[in-house]
Amino acid sequence: MSGFWKILNKTDGGDVLDVACGNGQFIEILKENLQSFSHITGIDFDKKAIEEVKSRFDDSRFTFVHGNSDDMPFPGEHFNLVSISKGLHHLKEIRQSLKEMHRVLKWNGLMIISEMYSDDLTESQKSHMYYHHLKADVDRFLGIPHHHTFRKHEIVGLVHELNLRDMTIHNLDQNPEIKENPEDYIAKMEVWKEHFRDSDLEREMHLKIEALKHRFREKGLSSPPHLVIMGYKQEPLTK
Fold first, then answer.
1. Strand partners of residue 224
2. Beta strands 15-19 and 39-44, pairing class
């Protein structure tokens, strides 16, 4: 990841937009690692997440907006840096949201896209992938957009459509030997069962959760690897 950090450390972020900001995890990374920035705006469709992240970054350099990424309330060519981290799989209209990110980015502005992928995983990383897939199924049952984990070529293909200049791809390979506590995930899955109570899927979901609990204890659980793609918005061709 040295290439990613070197670019970030030398970048004056200016006006920054973080899409699908969630609890502000990537905003914290930008805050601590950008050479400088003037303002960071976060946008997310989850009202609860917006209220929580507001309390985490309680100063005038940060603004948080409740809204959808496929139709953002910002003028074109407004931000110097636009990012999304671990958020592509939560977007209802991925291509439209990426087009919106491109629209609000200034010419020659920097775009950063970070997303986990499902290629060449260890057994413990596969456990995390299966957990994510099951969570996506639960969310979709509840009417919440959530995609399964993408493969590398799918992520790269989506970003290539933006025709960014000087695009670079960095691997963030998490150490699979560092295991997470499966009990935290198991507790969340037990709550999911309530969503399916008295539905046609209740037994199927129960069996999937029990099988995944067994896998966690047998194979372990560790964080998946991520791609970080960076590139600059090309200026329009002049006649």
1. none
2. parallel
Helix (H) / strand (E) containing 139:
helix 123-141
Identify residue 175 by its one-letter amino acid code: N
pLDDT tens profile 43-56:
999 999 999 999 99
Domain map (residue ranges) of the chain = 2-232
Order of strands, sheet of 39-44, starting from the edge strand that comes earlier in the sequence: 62-66, 39-44, 15-19, 79-85, 105-116, 226-232, 165-172
Q: Cα–Cα distance between 28 and 23 in angstroms, integer?
A: 10
Is residue 176 within 8 Å of 222, Cβ to Cβ?
A: yes
- pTM value is 0.93
14-60 pLDDT, tens digit each: 999 999 999 999 999 999 999 999 999 999 999 999 999 999 998 99
Give the residue from 174, 172, 204, 210 showing the smallest Cα distance to 190: 210
How far is the C-alpha of 28 from the C-alpha of 56, rounded, in Å?
A: 10
CATH number for the domain whose boundaries are 2-232:
3.40.50.150
Question: Backbone phi, then psi, for 192, in 5-degree steps?
Answer: -60, -35
CA separation, residue 48 to residues 44, 64, 154 (Å): 9, 12, 30
